[in-house]
Design goal:
By secondary structure, the protein is of the alpha+beta class. It has one domain. About 25% of the residues lie in helices and about 25% in strands. The longest helix is centred in the N-terminal third of the chain and has 17 residues.
């Protein structure tokens, strides 16, 4: 599936729940890790179908946010979809005191298996990184590397 989109029956069956979630909710959030479970991330699926970049964040980057990174990602995606506008690199947002900046996904194109299975390499990816209330200052964030 790493080069997708998936075409074999086994991968198509695995992706069906995600397709249904996207159809029902407009997007989904997937929790994943690298093959050795050194880094856990969560990323969006379904935004590609709207012509938008998918978003990815490290699970350790937002432990202080209520209910952690998955909750922050849901808030962010819902807000962005409700805005109806495009977003991109450098955009800054604040949720319940947590400031974030959208930055280029660092180091390598992450192997987000669900997105690769759905879209092949035809999706773009932005990392959700914590930043300080002064939006020009970026806090330390774990680089994302799943491959």
């Amino acid at each position: 599936m790493l080069f997708g989109p998936a075409v074999d029956p086994e991968h198509l069956a695995m992706l069906q729940p995600f397709r249904e979630m996207i159809r029902r909710e407009d997007y989904g959030i997937v929790i994943d890790s690298d093959s050795e479970h050194r880094l856990q991330v969560c990323y969006s699926v379904g935004l590609t179908e709207k012509g938008l970049p998918e978003l990815i964040a490290g699970m350790e980057d937002f432990t202080e946010f209520p209910q952690g990174t998955p909750s922050l990602m849901h808030h962010l995606v819902r807000t962005l979809l409700a805005r109806g506008a495009s977003y991109g690199e450098g955009d800054v947002f604040e949720f319940h005191g947590q400031w974030i900046r959208l930055v280029p996904e660092s180091l390598y194109m992450a192997h987000c298996d669900v997105n690769l299975g759905l879209y092949g390499e035809k999706f773009s990816l932005l990392q959700v990184a914590a930043c300080s209330p002064e939006p020009t200052e970026r806090k330390h964030a774990q680089p994302i590397c799943l491959n």
